[in-house]
Design goal:
Blueprint: H1 3-12, H2 14-27, H3 55-63, E1 73-74, E2 77-81, E3 92-99, E4 117-123, E5 129-132, E6 135-138, E7 141-146, E8 152-160, E9 168-176, E10 191-194, E11 197-202, E12 211-219, E13 222-223, E14 236-241, E15 247-250, E16 262-266, E17 272-282, E18 285-295
Antiparallel strand pairs: 1-2, 2-3, 3-7, 4-5, 4-8, 6-7, 8-9, 10-11, 11-12, 12-13, 12-16, 14-15, 14-17, 17-18
Length: 302
Amino acid sequence: MNTSARLGAYAAGLGVIFIAALGAGTALGAGEPPRTQPRPVHGHPEPAAGHAHTGAEEAEEAATTVPAGLQISQDGYTLVPLTTTLLPGKATDFRFTVTGPDGAPVTRYQVKHEKKLHFIVVSRDLGGFWHLHPEEAGDGFWTVRLTLPAAGTYRAYADFAPEGGPDLTLGTDLNAPGPYEPRPLPAPDRTARVDGYTVTLAGDLAPGRVSKLVFTVSKDGEPVGDLEPYLGAYGHLVAIRAGDLAYLHVHPEEGTTPAAGVTFAASAPSGGDYRLFLDFKHEGTVRTAAFTVHAETAGHSR
């Protein structure tokens, strides 16, 4: 079957896929996503370069919008996975496309953060996180090697900007069949350890207002002042809201340096628990430090 015919078949089944994704989310406590979804936070600066918008300005804008990733379609663009079921523990060449307002696959993308498209997968209990970079397979299709390590439900996000179009983050549920028991969300902690590195978080995530989150990295008790740029900056932060898995994509403030700590301006859309995933690069390797934080609503405490 040629590509056009395949795409027609996938598009025909899209309604079923979307309904199934909504059903899975609701059954697991995600709730019904909003009917409209504003644009996510974007604007990843070069480590020492200027930028039209600061992190604080982007976070101010995000504070007045609903976070991304809750819908499979937005502004006429639709994420179309070829499958939403993967065998647990088996590496799969996961393929998908994005269709535009005319119904055809999108083939031209803006380069954002050194890539045309970022693909992020989390387990629904937020115990797993994968930041991947698919390759173009031709005719508007993308492919990425993906392994869902265990049975359960996962959320996948495609983060991109079509040429001439808006910044978008579209999401879909992926399923790995088999017995599944979600793990509880890890308790809030200001320190995360990964591969001999210790990452410390200062600052609080606050609903409805901009706040600063500062991450410092150390190894063997000594600060790491020579972090390497990754995707155009010294750190890359993704925040996911527990429950519905709403997606916040924030970036370092201009002028941030590893020695002083990588600083992000962020605003939570609501109170509640969030999982933060910080990607950082040192000695040629990208590592991810994960934190659980609680955004307190004014006048309430846990």
